[in-house]
# Entry
Amino acid sequence: MARKLKLALIGLGRRGRGSHLPVYAKLKDVFDFVAVCDKDEAALQEVAKEHGVNTYSRVQDMVKHEDLDVVDVVVPGDAHHPICCYLADAGINMMVETPIAPTRPMADLMIEAAARNNVKLEVAENYHRTAMARFQAKVIESGVIGEVGRIYRIFYEGGYHGMSMLRLLAGSPPKSILGITQVTPVVPIIDRMKRRHTEERWVNSYLEFENGVAATMMYSNVIHARSLGRKATGISQIDGTKGAIVDNTVYYTSPADYENGAQATAYEPQLSFIEVNGSQVLDRISLELPEQTITWQNPYAALGVGENNGRGIDMADQLMSIANAVLNNTEPTYGAQAGRLDEEMSLAASESALMNKQSLSFPLNSPSKTEEQMHARFKENYGHVYTDIEPLLDVFYPRQ
Ligand SMILES: NC(=O)c1ccc[n+]([C@@H]2O[C@H](COP(=O)([O-])OP(=O)(O)OC[C@H]3O[C@@H](n4cnc5c(N)ncnc54)[C@H](O)[C@@H]3O)[C@@H](O)[C@H]2O)c1
# Structure
């Protein structure tokens, strides 16, 4: 049996405690969860009591006293690059939450530090790892809707997550982008994720991919928050040469009907469950078509990952990605460059809007105007330039 990897978690906030930590127990044969680090003393004590792990309020102290293989970095985005650069220089492998970093120069510091120290860096980009996203990728791969031509994601997801999904569904790197943005005031609100909003930042992106696929995506921070009645509904439609996927429904047209109205029949994916330790866990998603059945199998079902229609499958998959990369000295399945490209595409929408709605080609000039503004804001907020790694470790980063 492979050796167990000593794992620590930095960041006991909403995401770290709510989504990452619960999956560690399911992967107890792979990881030995030994330590946590946060600036919030009450959270440290609660997690220590529950999991019997060592606690630290400074990353430097944790690195000094623990012999760690992997650190799961779940602090706000502005803290990703100082913490990851420090961990890499200490020879520790990392999985970092999304976005990899707010700007490409910040991400590059992390990527260079990982390469220089020969450690692995995975990005916890989870949207494409969910059961339904994996299943849809299989449906597209099977060819039942033909070659993908257009993708509409309206009020589904935005930013780097949205860009990651568009690349998955398009099956190609991006070629160019046109971004249109608008900012309107909203009454001051605190959303269900405890984020404060006083304005709605609406982003409308039109993208072309190298393989000719076109995509349109529309989103805002208030839609993401589901506040003020936003996202009552959304549209995900993938149009192919032979059919379409609308939300989760696959539309298939029999070749016999191509010249006779070409009406499609709707096929719904079927979810099957197995019982593991008294819980119903998603085992597979299948689609029965006239000539074939397409099935996606949950690789983590036997471990009890996938309750409530698939919860935790994305998390287990990304933790296994960093574990396998470390144990077998291979590359993580998503990787830092893909995370950087997602952020570049997301920044490009704002950059295009800032440049009077010019269509921009990839790669973007570096640093872009948007990134320069973000670097200036970073210095204003934290009192240090973003390259000043050591003092940035002791800053408290508020929720963004
Ligand atoms: N993939 C997703 O769907 C998804 C969803 C939500 C959040 N996220 C990402 O997860 C990360 C965390 O977000 P969150 O909502 O949990 O934030 P949060 O503010 O709830 O939690 C962050 C934690 O980091 C701690 N912290 C701040 N500065 C620190 C420092 N210098 N050293 C150690 N700990 C420090 C805070 O005390 C807090 O407990 C962010 O990168 C965010 O973008 C991803």
About this structure: The first strand starts at residue 5 and ends at 10. The mean pLDDT is 96. Residues 10-16, 37-40, 43, 59, 74-77, 79, 97-98, 124, 126, 395-397, 399 surround nicotinamide-adenine-dinucleotide (CB under 6 Å).
